# Entry
Amino acid sequence: MTVYVDEAIWHWQGLRWCHLLADTEQELHGFAARLGVHRLVYQGPPKTTAPHYDLTAFERRKAIALGAKVSTRQEIVAVVRRVRVARPAAQALPQAARNSATMAPISPPVSQPRSGAST
# Structure
């Protein structure tokens, strides 16, 4: 089992953000708890199809120190494809919405207090 982080390239609220993913949700939540990231900031079904946490660049450095594997964009995409959860038909997006250029490719991080986070 492995926990993965990508590069902190997403800018939001004056911080740089990255994604924390794992081979299983159990491992993902366990690692996030060790990291000090509250479960409230978890992003997974039904909100997104790929269970993950958004981390600040500070939290990313801490995750790497705890053993998270630094991953390229291509490696993270491969992990997302492996771990993503299929949406039930009732929640599936219509074709027009999937093709919309206005849809954001990634959901913004949830604004919640973070333990140990600094700007």
About this structure: The longest strand covers residues 15-22. The longest helix spans residues 25-35. Residues 3-85 form one domain.
